[in-house]
Design brief:
Largest interface: A-B, 38 and 28 residues
CATH architecture of the largest domain in chain A: 3-Layer(aba) Sandwich
CATH architecture of the largest domain in chain B: Orthogonal Bundle
CATH topology of the largest domain in chain B: MetI-like fold
Strand content of chain A: 5-15%
Distance between the termini of chain A: 85 Å
Shape of chain A: globular
Largest sheet of chain A: 4 strands, mixed
CATH superfamily of the largest domain in chain A: Periplasmic binding protein-like II
Radius of gyration of chain B: 25 Å
Structural class of chain A: alpha/beta
Number of helices of chain B: 14
Number of strands of chain B: 0
Largest sheet of chain B: none
Oligomer: heterodimer
Number of strands of chain A: 14
CATH topology of the largest domain in chain A: D-Maltodextrin-Binding Protein, domain 2
């Protein structure tokens, strides 16, 4: 009996000591590894290092979005990560380890990592409120003094982002910078698309006004049996999703009077919602959609599918949809599985979506509301002990040669160079496959192709869509930012009343818009107005007031 | 050494292995159930991701800031109302359903047919709500749903199963019944096998028909099982599943489909308001415990055994 007890005790002791080691064991092998590397590179050092190269090897971890694409490589270990790792070791003597974070749950995952104190040294997210929340809790490094003292070593970072993007989030009172904004290089947003072949079949020209657009939708509906044959009852003249602010953007924003954007203060105070719900005149646009819905011009089932649901794309792919508004290159994305490729297979070789300009505002301008040229927000959690090495990483990844290689890859494998220097993407598989278009996940500081030459870049972008005729992409590229209004960046520091309200107000906005669009015509006004009242009472009004007050404080 | 101590030592010598076995489950409950409860404090404190829960500063209004915030939020009150009404409907319609199914299955004469029916009735239990909501869309969407296509071709009007609040509630409740009725009937079927067959024989001799036997023998035999399950269901009256309302909802029925769990998800978790989330969760749990204890003592008053 005693023996059994002893054995049990022994087991317990072993188990406990193992558990106790758990927290420390990660340190042991990595230190030995580190010394091995530093001794290995010591002799080859200094020869080609850049300013700021460390004498002794530093180690940093870097977040990378993992999109888990079919046929993709491991996000944290592949041809391109090796390119970065080798470069960083060579140029700065910094050893980089990538930490994969699932793209579509990045915010949730970042919560866990930060709470556990295991967040990577260099983090990124699309959500600034997340950064602000962590900063308020003391979980984030203030970049302002670091950037200041290392500025002379960060020339590439500064030349890509400019003072504007680096100081974008600088607190006007305290001067803190919790995150720098990466560059949205091609500021493209939304386009209106119509079926080019249907217009031809019905002998119609591309619509250039709202009235013509409406006539066109009606013509699609009335000629459903000509256009769709046996599937006539599946005709959807105009597609919509529950994210109405996005999928009707050009229509809705054309109802916003020009004067609204002229007043900097009014625009800023009402600009919390990125779909411009609070803008003057928005309601009239929604009313137009309501008219269309009740006239049977809008897809009847749209309220039931969450935004991004595959069923929505399937309607376009099957060729039932006459017109829609979406991301500027939406029908051309995804190569063989693009809407453009599918529609050719399912609805005939001449079937195609073409981008058009059709919604004028009160000044007769086809005005497009673009977002600010900012993209992901890069920050260092307070667990980062190698802030200088982390900054040098950002500098390295911003260097034109480095990011250009990451964006276009190897010649003959992922791209070919046409006679006039234009870069044409080629589909590839295997280890050099890019997990995201232009490797956006590895070029942390830039979103959008940049070859260092504007004209060349534009032409190359048009050839970046495998299987799509360049003329379509070029037109879409041109129209989406023609007569653009880019909001001026007004920095007033954090707005307290916005804290934590984003998701709830976004949901309210979508709900009230969907309910208004699907309302019976006589009930439209009451539903829209009560929805707006609720939106304002649930935090919207407080945000407008605080924004207006903050504007007065800093910009009068 | 006194006699009692000697007895205790003998007792422990004899039974210590049993106590050793007990250590594991106790440790489990202590580590995974009781230690996490110290984090209830978050409801009364300003949450910080970098501080330990003991170091976080107290919230305003004597620590009740987040409770006040929740109860002054119109959406929370709607969510509370919806949670209670949907759960009550679930109880009224969903609770008797498995009992009735068990009774019906019990009366089936063909064993093979009975088994087949049972298996088919269990199956939906293994489907996630995401899949069920996908099926529901395929069946009940206004223009592409199979049910409405059939109704239209027979000359009937389209029924807004999912896009009208009243119809949505009915769809929500009935889908719930469909999903769980088979599974929940298992426990009743098990209880049925425990009823002494002699009682049925005696009842037949006394001239009782099928319905009389069901009423006077089967149902009383199931009574204690029914009561225990009813108590446990009442304990969940304010609890809310997340995936079922979240998967089935859509913007048109938001004012009836937003329940506490979906409120917590959008406002608390996605809005990074963790203290608010914890406060709402704590409120939910406290109300559930009150209902559980209340229902249990009521059951005891009526001479039932209750659950403890």
């Amino acid at each position: 009996m005693k023996r059994v007890l002893l054995v049990l005790l022994a087991c317990l002791v072993v188990a406990m000591s193992l558990a106790a080691c758990g927290s420390g064991d990660s340190a042991a092998p990595s230190t030995s590894q580190g010394s091995a590397v530093s001794s290995g590179t010591a002799d080859a050092s200094n020869a080609q290092g850049l300013p700021g190269r460390f004498a002794e090897t530093k180690k940093i971890t870097v977040e990378v979005f993992d999109r888990a694409v079919d046929g993709g490589t491991k996000a944290e270990d592949n041809f391109y990560t090796n390119f970065i790792k080798e470069g960083m070791l060579r140029d700065y003597n910094v050893e980089v380890t990538f930490v994969p974070v699932p793209r579509w749950t990045e915010t949730e995952q970042m919560n866990n990592l930060l709470a556990a104190g295991t967040a990577p040294d260099v983090c990124l997210t699309y959500s600034y409120p997340t950064v602000q929340t962590y900063a308020n809790m003391g979980g984030i490094v203030d970049l302002a003094p670091l950037l200041e003292s290392n500025k002379d070593k960060l020339t590439d970072l500064y030349s890509l982002l400019g003072e504007e993007n680096i100081n974008w989030n600088k607190d006007p009172d305290k001067g803190t910078i919790w995150a720098i904004e990466s560059m949205l290089f091609q500021n493209k947003r939304i386009n209106t698309f119509v079926r080019e072949d249907w217009l031809k079949k019905l002998n119609m020209a591309e619509p250039t006004t709202l009235e013509e657009f409406e006539t066109m939708l009606k013509a699609f509906k009335d000629n459903a049996s000509t256009l769709l044959g046996a599937n006539a009852n599946k005709m959807i003249p105009f597609l919509l999703s529950v994210d109405i602010g996005w999928t009707a953007d050009h229509l809705l924003t054309s109802f916003i009077p020009n004067s609204f954007t002229d007043s900097e203060k009014e625009y800023f105070a009402n600009n919390f919602d990125d779909r411009h719900l609070l803008a003057t005149g928005y309601k009239n646009g929604v009313k137009k959609l309501n008219e269309w819905y009740n006239a049977g011009l809008v897809w009847k089932d749209f309220p039931l599918y969450p935004a991004g649901d595959k069923n929505i794309d399937n309607q376009m792919k099957a060729g039932y949809v006459g017109a829609f508004i979406h991301n500027w290159d939406y029908p051309y994305r995804n190569g063989d599985d693009s809407i453009a490729a599918n529609i050719k297979k399912l609805a005939g070789a001449d079937a195609a979506y073409v981008a058009i300009e059709t919604f004028k505002n009160d000044a007769g301008v086809y005005k497009k509301f673009l977002s600010a040229p900012i993209d992901r927000k890069i920050f260092f959690p307070s667990t980062n002990k190698e802030t200088e090495a982390s900054l040098l990483y950002l500098n390295w990844i911003s260097k034109l040669d480095n990011r250009k290689f990451l964006q276009i890859g190897e010649e003959g494998v992922t791209h070919e160079v046409l006679p006039d220097g234009i870069i044409k993407s080629i589909a590839t598989t295997g280890e050099k496959f890019m997990n995201s278009p232009y490797n956006i996940d590895y070029t942390m500081t830039i979103n959008g192709l940049d070859l260092g030459d504007k004209d060349l870049t534009t032409k190359s972008v048009a050839l970046g869509y495998a299987g799509v005729e360049p003329k379509y992409v070029q037109k879409a590229y041109e129209l989406t930012s023609k007569d653009a209004f880019i909001e001026k960046h007004i920095n007033v520091g954090p707005i307290k009343s916005e804290e934590g309200m984003g998701p709830a107000l976004k949901e309210k906005r979508d709900n009230m818009l969907v309910q208004s669009v699907t309302a019976k015509p006589e009930k439209f006004d009451s539903i829209f107005d009560s929805g707006m009242k609720d939106y304002l009472a649930s935090g919207g009004k407080a945000i407008i007031d605080e924004r207006a007050a903050a504007y007065d404080k800093y910009h009068k | 050494m006194s006699e009692n101590t000697q007895k205790l030592i003998n007792y422990l010598k004899r039974y210590w292995t049993l106590y050793l076995l007990l250590v594991l489950p106790i440790a489990y409950f202590f580590i995974f159930r009781y230690i996490p409860m110290t984090y209830i404090q978050i409801a009364f404190k300003k949450y910080s991701i970098v501080k330990s829960v003991w170091e976080m500063p107290w919230a305003d209004s004597n620590g009740f800031e987040y409770f006040i915030k929740a109860f002054s939020n119109a959406d929370f009150l709607y969510a509370l109302r919806n949670t209670i009404s949907l759960n009550l409907l679930d109880l009224v319609i969903g609770f008797p359903a498995p009992i009735i199914l068990a009774l019906l299955l019990n009366e089936l004469a063909f064993v093979k047919f009975k088994r087949l029916t049972q298996t088919v009735a269990y199956m939906p239990h293994f489907l996630s709500w995401i899949i069920i909501s996908g099926i529901a869309l395929q069946l009940f969407a206004p223009s592409t749903g199979l049910a409405n296509i059939m109704l239209n071709s027979l000359g009937f009007e389209t029924i807004p199963f999912l896009n009208d609040p009243k119809h949505w509630i009915a769809t929500y409740i009935l889908l719930g019944v469909w999903q769980s009725v088979g599974w929940n009937s298992i426990i009743y079927l098990a209880a049925l096998t425990g009823i002494n067959p002699e009682l049925y024989e005696a009842a037949s001799i006394d001239g009782a028909g099928r319905f009389k036997k069901m009423w006077h023998v089967t149902l009383p035999g199931l009574r204690s099982t029914i009561i225990v399950l009813l108590i446990m269901n009442l304990g969940r009256i304010l609890g809310s599943e997340f995936d079922r309302p979240y998967a089935l909802r859509n913007p048109l029925v938001d004012n009836v489909s937003n329940v506490i769990s979906t409120f917590v998800y959008t406002n608390g978790i996605r809005g990074l308001q963790f203290s608010l989330t914890t406060a709402v969760g704590l409120f939910q749990s406290v109300v559930c415990v009150v209902f559980l204890i209340g229902a249990n003592s009521l059951a005891k008053k009526f001479g039932e055994r209750g659950i403890w």
